[in-house]
Amino acid sequence: MSKKVIYTKNAPSPVGPYSQAIATQGELIFIAGQIPLNPETGEIIGEGDITAQTTQVMKNIEAILTEAGVNWSNVVKTGVFLKDLADFVPMNEVYAQYFTENPPARACVEVARLPKDVLVEIECIAVK
User: Fold this and answer.
1) Which of the residues are catalytic?
2) What's the pTM value of the predicted model, to 2 decimals?
3) What is the DSSP string of 82-125?
C-alpha cells in the first residue's frame, strides 16, 4: 500500500483528526456505512449515548478492516453522518482514538434520520 498525506497552507488546516487529502495506490476497500449494532445480537448499542454508539461503530469497522487484511492506518477516507451536530465533539473524541497519526480525509454532516434512528453512521475507504 502507498498512502501519502497531502497538505497545503493555501487551504484551511484540518480542525480535527483528518487530513486535507490522501493520495493512494493499491487495492481499494469500500466499507459500507456502519451503525452501532451488536454483531451477535443485532441490537443497537448505547441507546441515546453518542460515545457508546461511536465506539460500537468503530469496533464494527475495525472487524471489517481486519477481515480485509488491513488496519486503521490503511483508511484513507471516512464519511461521518450524525443525527445532531451537537454530538460532534464526543463523537470526535472517540474517532480520534482510532486515528492517532496521519488521519484520513473526512466529511462529517448532520442528516435528518439514520437507519434504526441511531445517532451516528460511519463509512470508510481503505487501501491495501
Assistant:
1) 108
2) 0.90
3) ES-GGGHHHHHHHHHHH--SSPPEEEEEE-S--GGG-SEEEEEE
Taking residue 73's Cβ as centre, other Cβ atoms within 10 Å add up to: 16
Kindly give, in sequence order, each residue whose CB lies less than 8 Å from that of residue 99, ignoring residues fewer than 6 positions away: 17, 18, 72, 75
pLDDT per position as a tens digit, 93-120: 999 999 998 899 999 999 999 999 999 9
pLDDT given at position 33: 96
Report d(CA 13, CA 32) in Å as an integer: 28
Task: State percent of the chain over pLDDT 90.
Answer: 87
**Helices 50-67 and 88-98: crossing angle, nearest 10°?**
30
Q: Whole-angstrom Cα distance, residue 105 to residue 92?
A: 14
Looking at every residue in the chain, the average pLDDT score rounds to 95
Residue 99 grid cell: 486515528
- 65 three-state secondary structure: helix
> pLDDT tens for residues 37-77?
999 999 999 999 999 999 999 999 999 999 999 999 999 99
Of all residues in the chain, what percent are helix, strand and coil, respectively (each to 5)? 30, 30, 40
